[in-house]
Structure formats: C-alpha cells, structure tokens
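Mods, move this if it's the wrong board.
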Amino acid sequence: MFLDKIALALSIIGGLNWGCIGLFNLDLVAFICGGSGTWMARIIYTVVGLAALWCLTLLFRTVDDRARHSHA
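Not the wrong board. Structure tokens:
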C-alpha cells in the first residue's frame, strides 16, 4: 500500500534524525527549520510521529492482510 511506504519512509527519516541527535547532538529538523519550537518543526515532528504510529500496524498485519490491501 502506498501509505505504508510513505509512513515507512517518514519513520526512517525520523530514526535517522534521532541517530544524528544521539551521535552528533544535531537535530536536523530543528537545524533546517530554525529551532525545534517553530511551527514548521512541530508539524514535521507530528507527521513523523503519526507515521511511526501507522507503522505499528505493519507489525500486526498478516500476509493475507497485506495481499488483500495491495490489490484494493
């Protein structure tokens, strides 16, 4: 499903951002948006968080569910 791929990509981006925070103390989203409290950064954090929640559903889907959704 297209939404699954978008959610996975956003979750990967969020994970890479957390990796940069942990390794280099650099929050790329905050750096690009001019601070972590800006409205743009908060929107990005929210969208990435929602994508991660969506990816949780991937853990509980069966192969039959994935096949059924990919043809719809």
